[in-house]
Hints:
- One of its GO terms (molecular function) is heme binding.
- Heme binds at residues 72, 111, 160, 358, 362, 369.
- Helix content is 25%, strand content 15%.
- By secondary structure, the chain is an alpha+beta fold.
- Helix 4 runs parallel beside helix 12 (483-494), helix 5 (196-203) runs parallel beside helix 10 and helix 12 (483-494) runs antiparallel to helix 13 (498-508).
Amino acid sequence: HGPIPHSPTGAPSKDxxxxxxxQGARLTTATGVPLRDTDHSLKAGPRGPVxxxxxxxxxxxxxxxxERIPERVVHARGAAAxxxxxxxxxxxxxxxxxxxxxxxxxxxxxxxxTVLGSRxxxxxxxxxxxxxxxxxxxxxxxxxxxxxxxVFFIQDAIKFPDVIHAGKPHPDVEIPQAQSxxxxxxxxxxxxxxAQHHAMWNMSDRGIPRSYRMMEGFGVHTFRLVNxxxxxxxxxxxxxxxxxVHSLTWEEAQIAAGVDPDFHRRDLAxxxxxxxxxxxxxxxxxxxxxxxxxxxxxxxxxxTKIIPEELAPVQVIGTMTLNAxxxxxxxxxxxxxxxAGHFVPGIDATDDPLFQGRLFSYLDTxxxxxxxxxxxxxxxxxxHAPVNDMLRDGFHQDAVHTGIAPYKPNSLDGGCPFLxxxxxxxxxxxxxxxxxxxxxxxxxxxxxxxxxxxxLFYRSLTPVEQAHxxxxxxxxxxxxxxxxxxxxxxxxxxxxxxELCATVAAxxxxxxxxxxxxxxxETPSPALSQIGGTWPxx
Length: 538
Ligand code: HEM
């Protein structure tokens, strides 16, 4: 299977894609037999009964009956667009990735989403937003599968089913507001206090973006870059919207959800249609790849932590422009299969236990969602690089492979790339040392602090933004039925900020508890001057 042809804008070219789907002016059956009538079933006489013999009737209804595929287990509701990424070359000393070389331009497909709602839910709900970008590079696909919030609820992927179960509509009546989806969410985040930081971002105006075009995006995890000499660096990826970061007020979000549940997808499609192509700069925070994988006292493998930009500025390495709407929602937005583990040479994973679990989850879920193991052959998922894999057969196999049995080394297949010497341009797993001495089920002590960065974020907000946060906690916790859960969450707020806790407690008509830890303005980070070190790029 070859690459899907794309127009210069990055969108699939209509002619080649629709050729397989629709040819000629005549209506036909799926096997190409011209039809004369598609409005009347074949009947024994004008008043029936209908005859089983009617192939067109059965084929038409059978196919319609199977038009839907399972929605994504998370991030089910999304909107996407085609575009192009232009690299400025600033990262080329850090990574050998060809698409980050100076002047390289790469087609992209970007899907924005909510996390918890079903496919038909409203756009403007309070939630995290997905920000997933597929780069069709000359060295294969690179997917940056991020969110609009820089931290995540949990530190270990083994808790992912739990946090999602706690947030999704309740299993009996499937209503989020029913007893007890609010209870389960707040029960989870107050019992698993590592979730407090992400929850605080959700309660802030970041949880109700005004537009997909006005959101930041974050790769969240730390990634490892490797350059042509084999030297490695640790980075965090950031998308910075050229339109700035803007949010709705809670009242606007509520009204939009009722009046126009498609508010965000309409906004994105309309802007692109009108030629107002949204742009984001891609940047990296750069950290030395030390054996500790820490920076400024912060564990780089802990996805509930940020590195403040004052300590490690975001350095721009390229720009993405979204310039074409999908031609077919199902074929593109619904069938696109992002995978956090789709790397190209020059970019690799770190040992972040949240990330490691994602490496399994995406392939596994797509096996069911997209009906078998050949979803990489779906046009929107096809790389623009040549594919020469040893994957054969299976459900929805479109390719007709020829030649002899695929295995390597193979002296019968006319040449074996594996014997041709070490090709440094291929993907190499960076030989990073691991310190393991025993198998354990436990977190490092550096994952323990759940409050100081939550406090740091809250105290970075303006008074108006802080008032919105207090209102959001009061509203959301007010939907809980269990008093013990409200009290436990108030205890967490007491450990974050006394004034915030007091305001929310008053709103709920409950006493404000005393903190159980010392409250300071200090973050665990030493001052900037203590960090030292030189950065590979300015
Ligand atoms: C889907 C981001 C953690 C499992 C997605 C999508 C995004 C995303 C953006 C939607 C992709 C699309 O538009 O199609 C993130 C981020 C995470 C995170 C930023 C943490 C930093 C996890 C974890 C797991 C997981 C820990 C599982 C252990 C999934 C699954 C899907 C998904 C199963 C649905 C994929 C599909 O059906 O194609 N995630 N996720 N995610 N995520 Fe995550």
